[in-house]
Amino acid sequence: EEGAAGRRGEREPSEEGPAERGPGAAFHMFVLMEDLLDKLKLLSYEEEALRRHNMRPLSRHYFALPTNPGEQFFMFCTLAAWLISKAGHPFEQPQEYDDPNAVISNVLLELRSF
């Protein structure tokens, strides 16, 4: 059975674009990235994850803007592997030239096992 919004032809809130959600919606991803960075700093990601791999710290908007998708994907995988290991599940650090689909499948498989 469809909800009231579906019967009237209206879109669900999750389907709305930035214009339909208000003027600040386009900047929500920047706020989320700043929150993520604060949480990573609380977990000492710079000392524990970045120094080990000789990587630079993230900027406040690193994942909010698509600047270098390959580099951003590798950073995401590095952080995901580090967080999974930090949570007590041994996880092999992905390499930069590993198959992206295989890496994501492994990350998702490990997260589902939590």
UniProtKB/TrEMBL annotation:
InterPro entries: Intra-flagellar_transport_57. GO terms for cellular component: cilium; Golgi apparatus; intraciliary transport particle B; microtubule organizing center. Keywords: Cell projection, Cilium. Residues 1-14 have a biased composition (Basic and acidic residues). It holds the Pfam family IFT57. It is found in: Cell projection, Cilium. Residues 1-23 are annotated as: Disordered. One of its GO terms (biological process) is non-motile cilium assembly. Belongs to the IFT57 family. PANTHER family: IFT57/HIPPI, INTRAFLAGELLAR TRANSPORT PROTEIN 57 HOMOLOG. This is Intraflagellar transport protein 57 homolog. It comes from Hylia prasina. The gene is Ift57.
